[in-house]
């Protein structure tokens, strides 16, 4: 956005979502209980955007200026939904990596982890098999004596592990997030990582002689995610804190953003189902509220969302990179002449929103060019219509 | 709706709006303060409808059945807005007497009272002039000694009046509501009234010799509204309680449904402006909250609402009767081939929603027939599209 704003002589406005960053409606008490957290939801956020944009335009005497909304990931869903619900405020939306179909039963629940697995399998079948086999080895250790001490050594933990669960989460996170940020250039989105980090991970695995355990090989690969910058002497596996403030997101997944996920037998993760009742019980314990698993499809359209978009929507770009496991919940085919799906085989999580670099591949440059052209078309139509 | 449902083999569902009737989310405490009343607003009501309709369809295994929403007055606004925001749930909306343009500066603020005045003027210029002149006579009495006693006598009050203000409100209400319900047949919507009650009121005024004061003539006309059934021996002018539960509506007008109204010099009411600050201060005193005068236009579209409806909406009938002063805030011209304005010169407040009677005039029978035909078209299109 910073790269293209000057072309459009655009004012860039980053609107912080309520309950994130510094936007705490009840100050320090904002996260205290469901009483305050109840105001944290996507509809209230969309309404905030509507009010802010409308009053900002008045304040700067730009009532006639067209507004295009941009968002990636959850922000991408918000951008698409905003265009759908507030077409009088935004003339178009660029929704990057927006999994608006990740709800209810709109897509198979195993899609996400199948996609992560496909990323690794596409690079190397051995890599996929090693990771797939590592979980059973880890599981076996939890019943062995002295296993945790050995595991702590293998995983180079700063302190001795108390269970295998944290090691499991640690590996899991590394593989999932690396698939998400499998960018074509060196990047530092979640963590500093090299270009195409999934390839690098698999190269690490494929290089290690096969007499080494699958678990140790999986660990070495995962270390790339946590220690590419070589700044860590040991890993704080039990205290790995997610740095990008997911507390609010956890509340949202427990209320409206219910996205059921399972691991199929074909995935590289241990097979698992989605036990809605267990999930709901956890939410009730954490927040004292029950999730509303059908709310998003009720509010924004479910089974017929594509039809709704086709008939009532316009001027939305859904961009998705197929490396990104969230892409499977995205809109991957054009819905109409003005609801466009831009899909890149080698793209990852909202890669188009990253600043341009000299090493960007042609397909990425082309993707961004297409987006600019489409947005320009919206603007031309808007001004012609004035 | 009861008349036409059988033709469509339709299930009729009357959804009670939260905070009205028996739908009290906090029981007896629902109206206690802004803390509970905060949940009384149009967006929450629309979301209720979405959830109720979706889950009801599931419960009765009718997921594929099309839904058409009906509403009159505020309910008509809700119906139109519901179709706009939830096109995936309702295939069409019949919005009768829905003043969706009565907000912000979308129409002249004097429209409403000018329309009331026009109703009376169209029947008899003398009638209009008598009512127009009556306010000054009433005003003059407030400074005279013994005036209130005299006024109490003129107005046949059950108890002596303490001020002229209540007599003013009493007259005012009678003229405004009679214009609204100026139906072509005997009816009992707000009060029992004869056919075309504005004509009857003016007939009363025109019959009284002009030596009588304007005020006494206006009183006699207004009595028609309060005592057509001849059940009252005296009038409880200071304790006239509005029977249809407007407490919730008062909250809504103090928060989101801010509809500024003024009386022009041409109206039959004393000229008055709209002092927003005074209005806001009253709301703060009553409820401890400030109104959001631009919210409705932000949420549903303001200056460009017609454009928004044309481009993003479809399948809405806006029906309006020009006798109804609310018609001036309604959609009176077709917006597109499927957003249709049905306007009747002699119609009053959602007259089309009243049960058919043997005395219905031709234009009313025709209006209802058109509505049925349009709804049938929506259904045909829906089934063809399945």
From TrEMBL, chains A, B:
Pfam families recorded: Peptidase_S28 (PF05577)
InterPro entries: AB_hydrolase_fold, Peptidase_S28, Ser_carbopepase_S28_SKS
GO-annotated molecular function: carboxypeptidase activity
Key words, A-Z: Carboxypeptidase, Glycoprotein, Hydrolase, Protease, Signal
Similarity section: Belongs to the peptidase S28 family.
UniProt-recorded name of the protein: Lysosomal Pro-X carboxypeptidase isoform X3
């Amino acid at each position: 956005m910073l790269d293209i704003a000057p072309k459009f002589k655009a004012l860039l406005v980053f609107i912080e979502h309520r309950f994130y960053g510094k936007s705490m409606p009840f100050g320090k008490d904002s996260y205290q209980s469901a009483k305050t957290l109840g105001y944290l939801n996507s509809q209230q956020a969309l309404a905030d955007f509507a009010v802010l944009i409308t009053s900002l335009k008045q304040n700067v005497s730009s009532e006639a200026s067209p507004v295009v909304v941009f968002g990636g990931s959850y922000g991408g869903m918000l951008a698409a939904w905003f265009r759908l619900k507030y077409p009088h405020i935004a003339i178009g939306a660029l929704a990057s990596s927006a999994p608006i179909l990740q709800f209810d039963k709109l897509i198979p629940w195993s899609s996400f982890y199948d996609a992560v697995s496909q990323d690794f399998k596409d690079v190397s079948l051995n890599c996929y098999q090693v990771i797939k086999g590592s979980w059973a080895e880890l599981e076996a250790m939890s019943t062995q004596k002295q296993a945790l001490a050995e595991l702590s050594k293998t995983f180079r933990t700063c302190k001795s592990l108390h269970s295998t669960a944290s090691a499991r989460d640690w590996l899991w996170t590394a593989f999932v997030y690396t698939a998400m940020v499998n960018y074509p250039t060196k990047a530092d989105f979640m963590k500093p990582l090299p270009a195409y980090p999934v390839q690098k991970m698999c190269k690490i695995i494929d290089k290690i002689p096969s007499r080494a355990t699958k678990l140790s090989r999986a660990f070495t690969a995962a270390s790339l995610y946590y220690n590419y910058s070589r700044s860590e002497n040991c890993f704080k596996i039990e205290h790995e804190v997610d740095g990008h403030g997911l507390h609010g997101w956890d509340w949202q997944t427990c209320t409206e953003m219910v996205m059921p996920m399972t691991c199929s037998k074909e995935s590289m993760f241990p097979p698992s189902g989605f036990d809605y009742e267990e999930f709901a019980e956890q939410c009730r314990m954490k927040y004292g509220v029950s999730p509303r698993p059908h709310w998003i499809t009720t509010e924004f359209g479910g089974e017929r969302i594509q039809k709704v978009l086709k008939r009532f929507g316009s001027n939305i770009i859904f961009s998705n990179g197929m490396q990104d496991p969230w892409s499977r919940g995205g809109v991957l085919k054009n819905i109409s002449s003005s609801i466009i799906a831009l899909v890149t085989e080698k793209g990852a999580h909202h890669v188009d929103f990253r600043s341009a670099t000299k090493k960007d591949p042609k397909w990425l440059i082309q993707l961004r060019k297409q987006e600019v052209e489409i947005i320009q078309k919206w603007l031309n139509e808007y001004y012609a219509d004035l």
